[in-house]
Design goal:
Blueprint (H helix, E strand, L loop, with lengths): L11 H16 L17 H12 L8 H8 L4 H13 L9
Helix pairs in contact: 1-4, 2-3, 2-4
Length: 98
Amino acid sequence: MGFTYNSFGGDPVAGEKRYGESCINCHGPAGKGAASYPKISGKEISYVTAMLETYRDGIEVGPNSSLMIMMAMPLTDEEIANLAAYLKDAKYQPNINK
């Protein structure tokens, strides 16, 4: 009986890729937060999963709910698990060698 990595949790590498496709535009690099969009890195997997599922279900929970609902609706369960796995340990590394 074989199990894939995703049988036990999300794939943070796939989550980082998916994050870069849309989430980064508002939440900034590694989920550090930007303007009125909150920091979302370092959160527990269960919290990120619950929030994304809530938004995907069309439930408003904050000032940016309309945008979050629109962004979360197309997410699959696997994409949510991957995003949560990535964001749990994501760390912003500013490029100081400019």
